[in-house]
Structure formats: structure tokens, C-alpha cells
Design a protein that fits this description.
Strand 12 and strand 13 form a beta hairpin. The longest helix has 15 residues. The protein is built from 3 helices and 24 strands. The chain is globular. With 320 residues, the chain is mostly beta strands. The chain has a single domain, classed as Neuraminidase (6 Propeller), CATH 2.120.10.
């Protein structure tokens, strides 16, 4: 049954991809508090995450996932006039793919996948992969290999202009907490052995899903378990001081965070927009009067029903 549902899900996306979708990113982002971003109608029924907008803002990659993240694929949205064409990414749809992110020049896309190293082999743990755009076409993905990828899971890559690669991993050796953010530098075309970020960023709890600015000056990430956590995991920001050291991370506050899980942060390359994923919901725990069938189905089928949705706000509300 799971296989059949997956095929139906992918087939519906292929059908929708044949025509542009009435979706746009308005010029002015909301201020004061984050607002639900209305994605194309064909995506709205599903749990979504990982918002990666290209530097030119003409391409967009979003992850759509099944319930409990049994299977996930990356969708590729391309601008067609004022609308967006929705398709499965050319490199996605066979294995669980998540967490796409552009390099600052927009020519390479990093993402995470459980695909095998060799075709037709069994799926493996989650690794970081990359695909390059050659003559307008995204190439066959390449595994980053050691020392980035290991027998453990690696998640949520972030690449800076100076060649640093940040990612999430739950390594046992040299770890600060239960899940940490790590960084590796690109030297002579090869990545160095990853180092765990200091305790001004990582804690004894969970830190994951880090967005790092292209100039490597600030990091936004999710942490779960801290005393100032509003609920299921909040977004935090840390900036570098004049010496290049990470300052103590600060909670982004109630205008961003909720009682649910808030994660997958992304700041547009023009620094105008801040996007993130949240599983917050508006469903009540009880009702004064008995619901009709229609009202019940409408209530639990609303957008803010606990599945992942994309929210956005003016980036100044986060970075100032």
C-alpha cells in the first residue's frame, strides 16, 4: 500500500507540473510576525519543508514529504512569467531526498539523500550530495564522500562564499550534545575533517538545520530542549564578533517561534526575506458543540493542522 500511495503521489505531481501554478512571492514581506506562505494549490495538502530560493529568484526547490517522513522528494519550481511551473526535480523521485540549498553563485545545489552510492544497490544512511547546473540542466548528483559523509547520517548542508560547509550530525566522538552543527573548510579542492561548533552555538541538547549567511557572519538554526524553548524546538541566531568567534545564540522570539517545531531557516540572497518551516497548528483540542461531518473534515484538513508549512517574514525582523 505504501508503494501504491507513493506512485500516486508522484504521478499527481507530474500531472500538475505540465502547467504553471498561480503562486508568487510578493515584493514586500510581512513585518512584526511570521505569516503562512501560500504555496501552489497542488502542494498545499502535503507536508512541506526546506525552502531554497535561487540568488536570481527564478528557481525554487521545496521538499514534500509523506506522513512521518517515510518518503520525501524535492520539487523544482521555475518561474514562467508571473507564475511558477511545478515539477519533480530531475534528480529526485526514486529515493528520499531532502534539504536542498544553493551555493552563493547559484550554480551548485547541495542536498541530502539516502540513495545508494552505486545504482540498484540498497538505500543507505543519509549523506550530503551535490548537483551542478550545466547549460541550464542539473547534472547527475555526486556524493561528497569522506570526510563529510560517514556511516552516520549527515543533514542540512549550508555553503558559504569562502568555501565552508556547515551541516548537522549526531556523531558520538567530539560531540557537544545529542545532535550538533559541524563545519568543514574547502582546501585545495577537498573538504577538511569537520569540526564541531563551539558551545555558544551547540549545547548538550539538540542543534540542527543551520542556515549560514553567504559571508559566514551569522548562523540561524533550530535547538530543542533549551530553557527558553517555547515548545517543540525554536529558531536561534548567533553572529560572529570582530575576532570571528561565534557569540552566544539568541532565541528569535515569539514573532518567529511557536509552541510547535520551527525549523529549516532560509534567508534570501538579497536579504529581504526570511523563510522557515513550522508544524504549528490551529486545531482546537475540544469544541463546545458537536461538529458536523463537513465541519470536522474542514477543521482537520486546514493548512495549519500540524503538518509542515512554510512561513515568512521580513528578514530585517530577524537580522537587525
Amino acid at each position: 500500500m505504501k508503494y501504491i500511495l507513493t506512485i500516486l503521489f508522484l504521478g499527481s505531481l507530474f500531472c500538475f507540473g505540465k502547467k504553471p501554478s498561480p503562486f508568487s512571492i510578493p515584493g514586500l514581506a510581512p513585518k512584526d510576525s511570521a505569516v503562512l506562505l501560500m504555496l501552489p494549490k497542488e502542494i498545499q495538502p502535503f507536508s512541506v519543508r526546506d525552502f531554497a530560493l535561487s540568488p536570481k529568484q527564478d528557481e525554487l526547490f521545496i521538499t514534500v514529504e509523506s506522513n512521518k517522513n517515510v518518503f520525501s522528494s524535492i520539487l523544482h519550481l521555475t518561474k514562467d512569467g508571473k507564475k511558477w511551473k511545478v515539477e519533480l526535480a530531475s534528480f529526485s523521485g526514486k529515493y528520499s531526498d531532502i534539504e536542498p540549498t544553493f551555493t552563493p553563485d547559484g550554480n551548485t545545489l547541495y542536498f541530502v539523500s539516502n540513495r545508494p552510492l552505486q545504482k540498484d544497490s540498497a538505500v543507505k544512511d543519509f549523506d550530503i550530495w551535490k548537483t551542478e547546473k550545466i547549460k541550464g540542466v542539473w547534472s547527475e548528483p555526486e556524493n561528497l564522500g569522506a570526510p563529510i559523509n560517514t556511516d552516520a547520517n549527515e543533514f542540512y548542508p549550508a555553503v558559504t562564499t569562502n568555501g565552508k560547509l556547515y551541516f548537522t550530525a549526531a556523531y558520538k566522538e567530539k560531540a557537544v550534545g545529542k545532535e550538533d552543527i559541524w563545519v568543514s573548510s574547502l582546501e585545495n579542492g577537498k573538504y577538511t575533517q569537520p569540526l564541531v561548533l563551539p558551545e555558544t552555538v551547540n549545547s548538550r541538547f539538540y542543534e540542527f538545520n543551520a542556515f549560514v549567511s553567504p559571508d559566514d557572519s551569522y548562523i540561524i538554526f533550530t535547538s530543542f530542549g533549551r530553557e527558553d524553548d517555547l515548545g517543540g524546538g525554536d529558531l536561534y541566531i548567533s553572529k560572529k564578533d570582530a575576532k570571528g568567534d561565534w557569540l552566544p545564540a539568541k532565541n528569535l522570539g515569539e514573532n518567529i517561534n511557536s509552541k510547535g517545531l520551527d525549523y529549516c531557516p532560509f534567508v534570501s540572497f538579497d536579504k529581504k526575506y526570511f523563510f522557515f518551516t513550522s508544524d504549528r497548528n490551529s486545531i482546537q483540542k475540544s469544541y463546545k458543540t458537536k461538529l458536523s461531518l463537513d465541519t470536522f473534515l474542514k477543521e482537520i484538513g486546514q493548512l495549519q493542522n500540524g503538518k509542515g508549512n512554510i512561513y515568512w517574514i521580513d528578514a530585517d525582523e530577524v537580522l537587525r
